[in-house]
Amino acid sequence: MIHAGAVAHGVGPLEIRTAGKVWIVGTGDVAGRDEASWHALVAVDATTIRPDTPVAGSVATTRFELFRAATGRRSEAQIRGFEWSVDPEPYLPIFGYGPFKVRSTNLDE
């Protein structure tokens, strides 16, 4: 849903980094879902990074935090706390795209 949200909101391309995995979201059209990628690492429909892909910015966090943010278990304040190379404000709506919404209060797990 993160990629679909980035495309729908017209933000991106955004590089998302977790330990050992990098995606570019917000490029092109929403394609078919890669369910294995979703269940394992959350970034549905994301394109695996290519060295020549220009990005508008990047965000880094753990796989756990990325999954929690994408499934409505993190607030805007918590998502802002990820390691952003750009202002996170334009990207916050992509975490609430689809069946899950960004929490209004922090949730510590």
CATH architecture designation:
2-Layer Sandwich
Q: Percent of residues in helical segments?
A: 25-40%
- Please tally the β strands and state the result: 5
According to CATH, what is the topology? Nonspecific Lipid-transfer Protein, Chain A
Main β-sheet, in a few words?
5 strands, mixed
How many DSSP H or I helices?
4
* Order of adjacent strands in the largest pleated sheet: 3-2-1-4-5
Class per helix and strand makeup: alpha+beta
Q: Any idea what the radius of gyration is? A: 12 Å
What is the chains' assembly state?
Answer: single chain
- Unreliable parts: 29-47
Please indicate the count of domains: 1
Overall, the morphology is globular
Cα distance spanning the termini: 22 Å
Name of the level-1 CATH class: Alpha Beta
Order of helices and strands: HEEHEEHHE
User: What proportion strand?
Assistant: 15-25%
